[in-house]
Structure formats: C-alpha cells, structure tokens
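User: My instructor asked us to take a sequence, write out its structure as tokens, and then describe one feature of it. I'm not sure where to start. Here is the sequence I was given:
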Amino acid sequence: MAQESGVSDQLKLNNIYLAIISRYKDYIEEKESISVAELPTLVTPNNNAVKGKVDEIKRSFEKYDYDKDFYEASLKAFEFVKEKIDSVVLPLQFWLTPEETLVFLVGDAFDKNILLCSLIIGLGNPSSKVMVVMKSDSKRIFVTYGYNAKFYLLDLNDGVREFSNRDEIMNILKEGEEITAYEFNDRTYIDLV
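Assistant: Let's start with the prediction itself. The structure tokens for your sequence are:
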C-alpha cells in the first residue's frame, strides 16, 4: 500500500512539474534559445562525465590504440547512446548538456546526437560533427565523421552507414528534394545547403 502511495505521489508531483513547465513554456524557451554561433558550445568532449564514458569505452579494449580501435570504439559509443539513452519529448525546447544526458539517461534527438558527437571526439576523432537535415516538414539529425579515408553517417534510427566520400552522404540525404542542412561540433558551425 505504501508503495502505491509513493507511485501516486510521484505521479502527482510529475503532473505539477508539467503544469509549471507548461505555464512558463514561452519564458523558458526564450531563455533556452541558442543561436547558430552558440551550437558548438553544446558539444563538450572535455566534460568530466563525457571523459568518464570515453574512458569506460577505451577500457573495453586491451590497450586502446586510435589507429586500430577507433572504429569499433565509435560503434560502442553509438550502441551506448542508441540502447541506453531513452528518447524523451518535452513540451518545450530545452537543451540538455551531454553531462545531463548521461546523468539522466534521457534526451531528445538533438541531445542524443550531441552526446554521441562529444563521445566520438573524446575517442580521438575531431572530425566528428552533428549534422541536421531539414526537408519540408521533417528534421533528421545524425553524427558524421571521417576515418581511414572513409566517411561514416551514424543514424540512431537507421544504423551506421559507410561512404567513400562526403558528397555521397549529402546526395543520399537529399534524395531529390530541396533540403536545408548544417553541421557543427565543438569548434565549428557550417551551413551545408
């Protein structure tokens, strides 16, 4: 009986939080807005929580060697984010940091891809970027990186795809439609189309 009361109390508390968030949605979103110039600040490979997860991934190898082990390590990072970070859709636009995404093990598509990009950079690949592609009424978010003369697109919904050059990635994403696309990491922001 006490357990039922605890669940009921938690549900009530969650409903109160939702009511407060909904009431102040516009204010929160105004304060939460990020300009394109600020997007790189979201990717944090040097954050202690991100470094801790990177170290955990590296320890899964006998002796982590970037040249030999990076690709497999990137797949481990991908699987971690895909399998362990639950998707959440909040009633407002709110950016979680990679550290918060790791602590709470939840995030929206942006949060999850920003964490993945941070992990991959932490594993030693500074070419990793979050790529956002918008077509008419849809938005897709991926992580891309180059490694050993190949290019990879990591899609948390559809898996990992390998390409021989970056142009192939853009051609696949366009699929004959007009798109708007940009990418960023901890150092840069670039409008692609």
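For the description part of your assignment, you could build on this observation: The first helix runs from residue 2 to 23. Try explaining in your own words what that tells you about the chain.
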